[in-house]
Amino acid sequence: MLKNVMIISTSESFAIKSMEQKLIAVEISAYQVVARTTDIGSNIDRAGLIVLYLDERMAAMTASLQNMLSYLNDKLYESNKMLIVIAKRKDYEIALRYISEDFILQFFDRPMNMEAFVQTIFEYMNEGEKKIGEEEKKPAEDAELAAPIKRKMTSDMVAVRKRRILLVDDDASYLRIIRNWLKDGYEVGVASSALQAIMWLAKNDVDLILLDYKMPVCSGAQMFAMLQNDSQTKSIPVFFLTGNSARDAVMEILKLNPEGYLLKTFDRKALLTRLEEFFEFR
Q: Per-block average pLDDT, block size 10, for the chain (282 residues)?
């Protein structure tokens, strides 16, 4: 595992400096990036673990911060990395509207217990190294016996690959609810805007898009048109999500000829049943 910790914060402070020094003392490197999507995107690959430090300025939850948190959630999903959050509890609970708890290794209430923080990171970083060391100590004959099994597992994994669904909705709370409903049976990506969705699709394949019909700036209908005009995405099936069950509203959606539509009043069982029916013969 990469023994680098990326610390996301608004600016360099005594608290950040102290974290860096304490981590260096246990032979773990740390580097700070500003809480912007561009800085996070260009620096996340070299990190083994991410720390999000929510100070008073970040806790204001501006639109740019909300976008940053949603972007960070996507990057954690894409890179399979974990996150430590340092914040006041009320700010942490707000951040959970945008970041899934699945990606959070530990939450530390401010003011933080520095010793517990460093110990958590040290154990997490060295656990991966310990496992690698244990594998290297296995006798050669064990490795030979394991090889065919490993190949068989890989083949089986491909055969039962989870379907991947992209959720697109500007309501972060709704995104979180639906993602939690789907995460056990599907690989789930999330985007809170059409722009985020297009960026996500540029790097990921997907089997289905659940797209909010009414979104600000770029509506679901506009995003659907963009997908249809691109040879790389035109074949992706799309279900529109709508809160309006009126006949005229539904007909307006169906005129676009999507794969289908889903009313936002559905419950978990109804959603899972509809998706199972859709994927059954695909």
A: 83 81 90 91 92 76 80 88 91 87 88 88 74 46 40 38 88 89 90 90 91 91 93 92 89 92 90 87 65
Give burial (CB, 10 Å; 0-12/13-18/19+) of 147: exposed
DSSP assignment, residue 103?
A: G
Ordered structural domains, the chain, with CATH: 4-126 (3.40.50.2300), 164-279 (3.40.50.2300)
Instruction: Tell me the CB-side half-sphere exposure of residue 101, using CA atoms within 13 A.
Output: 9
Task: Tell me the DSSP string of 24-79.
Answer: HHTT-EEEEEESSHHHHHHHGGG-SEEEEE--TTGGG--HHHHHHHHHHHHHHHHH
104, 83 in Cβ contact below 8 A?
Answer: yes
Q: Is the pTM of this model over 0.85?
A: no
Both tokens assigned to 165: 């669904």
